[in-house]
DNA sequence: CGGTGCGGGTCTA
DNA sequence: TAGACCCGCACCG
C-alpha cells in the first residue's frame, strides 16, 4: 500500500490496474444501479475499466482521507494531518485544512475565484474567472505575456476589461478575459466546506490557463494603476531593468526546476506517481466522450495551447497550466455526478485507477501532438510547482502522457483510466440516492457566455513579478516544496505539514457543519452527536448525524472512526435516508443556530 | 473600492 | 431538475 498525501493506494493497484475490488468496481459502476448509463459517451464501459480504480482504503490507515465535499459525513482529521495551505490548487484535488488556517478560512486562492451560488449553504462554491490577457497577445520584454488576475468583483472586473494593456510596448492592446474552461468546458470550481475541526477543500477541473499574477503584482499595479510596464519605448529606468533581470533569473531558476523535474525517474517507479497523478488526472476520463467534452476545448482553444507551448520559453514558470488542462483538461465522468438533493450539488468524485498508466492516461483532445507532449512535461512540472500537496506526474508522466495525451483522443483509455466514483453514492448504495448522471456530456465550452474572448492566445506563462512581489518568493518556495513532495511520495505526505494557525477560531459560515465530521477511529460509538452537533443543523447535517449514529461514527472530535466511505473490502455504511434533499430548491437553511457551536451562520470572516 | 459571501432569480439543457 | 450565471445587498478591510 502506498500512501500519497494521505491517500492510500494499494501498491498492487498502482502497479497493476486490476479490478481487484469488486466492491469498488461495483460502486464505480453505478450504471448498474439505474437506467442511467454510466458513460453516455462512446464507451460506456470505459470508466469502469475493470473497476481497478483504487479507492483508498480506510482500513489502510488513511481512510480518513477518503471523502468528497458532498459527502454527508466527512472524515475527522487529526490536527497533525492537515494539509499545508495551497493557494494554487489545481486539478481534481482535495485538501483538508485546519480550521485555524487563515488562508483556508478566507478561502483564498491564487486563482481568481469568484463566489458561485450553488444554493447550498453548506458548501461554498467558487468558480474560476480565468485570467486577463492582452487582446493583442503582446509580448513583454521578457517574452512573456500579460496574465493578470481578474477582479473578483463584477464591477471591478468590468472596469478592468478593455483597459489598455499594461505593456508599454503593446499597441492598442486591451485587457480581456480569458475564461477558464478547465472543468469540462466550464470554469474550474472550488468547494469549501467547514466541518468539525477542519476546512475541506475540493477542486474540480484543471485550469486551462496560466496562473494569474497576484493582484498586487507590479504588473497588475501597472495595469490598473497606469504604470507602464517596461517596454522598448519604455522609460527604461531602473525598475525596468530590475524587472528584466528578475525575469531572467526567474527563467533560469524555473528552467532549473523543470530540469530537475524532468530528470526525475518515474517510469521505473510506478509508485512514484504522485497524488496528482491520481487525483488530478483521474479527473478526466470522466467525460463520457472526450470528443464531447470541452475540457480541452478543441475548438479554438487548441490553437491557443499550441501557441502557448510554442512560446514555452518561459513555460517553466509557475503559471503554466497543468498538462491536464492544456492538452486535456480532465473532466469528470458524467457517470459520477450525483445529486443528493436539490441544491444543485454534484457528487463528482474521481476515483483513480492507481496505476501508472492511469496516471498518465489523461485523455486529450488536443490535436497538437508535439505541443501536447511538451505540455505534458511542463504540466508535470507545473503540477509540482502548482503547490498541490500532491506531487505530480513527473517526467514519466510527461513522457507517457505524451502518448496518452497526444494520441489518445479517445475518451476511452486503454490504460486504467481515472474513474470517478461518488463516495456519496457508495455510501448511499441501496439507498437509491446516488444516481449517476453525466456531467460532461455536453460541450459547455461554447456555452460560456461571459467575456467570451476565447481567442487563441499565444501567451506564455509568465510571472513578471515573480521576483517583485512577496508572492514570488512564496511561489518559489512552493516550487521547491512541491519538488520535495514529489520525492516524498510513497510516504505520508501530510505528516509534518505545516499549517497556519491563528488564535482566532473560525467564526462560522453557513456551510460550516460542525457535525459532519466523522470522528477519528471510532468504530462503534454513536454518541458523537451531542458533542459535535451544535447549532448548525440542516437536513444535510441531520443526515450526517444519522449516519454518525447508524454507522457508529462519532462526531465529537477525539473519537476514532472508520472512514466515512466504505473502503474496499468494507461494507458500505448504512443506507442513507431516501434522500438528502433540502426542503427547498434553493438554500433555505434553517438559519443554523450556530449558537451551540458558537458559530455565526453568516459570518464570513 | 474591491473582496467575499449570501441568496433570489434566470437561462439552458 | 441541475448547473452556470447574473445581480443586488451586506459586511469587511
From TrEMBL:
Species: Drosophila mauritiana (Fruit fly)
Basic residues bias spans: 582-592
Protein name (database record): Transcription factor glial cells missing 2
Record field: compositional bias (Low complexity): 593-605
GN (gene name): LOC117150638
Domain GCM: 65-224
Annotated SUPFAM superfamilies: GCM domain
Molecular function terms, GO-annotated: DNA-binding transcription activator activity, RNA polymerase II-specific; RNA polymerase II cis-regulatory region sequence-specific DNA binding
Listed GO CC annotations: nucleus
Pfam family of the protein (one): GCM
Comp. bias intervals (Pro residues): 568-579
Annotated region (Disordered), positions in chain: 24-64, 211-232, 476-500, 562-605
Xref: InterPro entries: GCM, GCM_dom_sf, GCM_large, GCM_small, Tscrpt_reg_GCM
Subcellular location: Nucleus
This protein's UniProt keywords: Developmental protein, DNA-binding, Nucleus, Transcription, Transcription regulation
Biological process according to GO: gliogenesis
Domain of life of the native organism: Eukaryota
Coiled-coil region(s): none
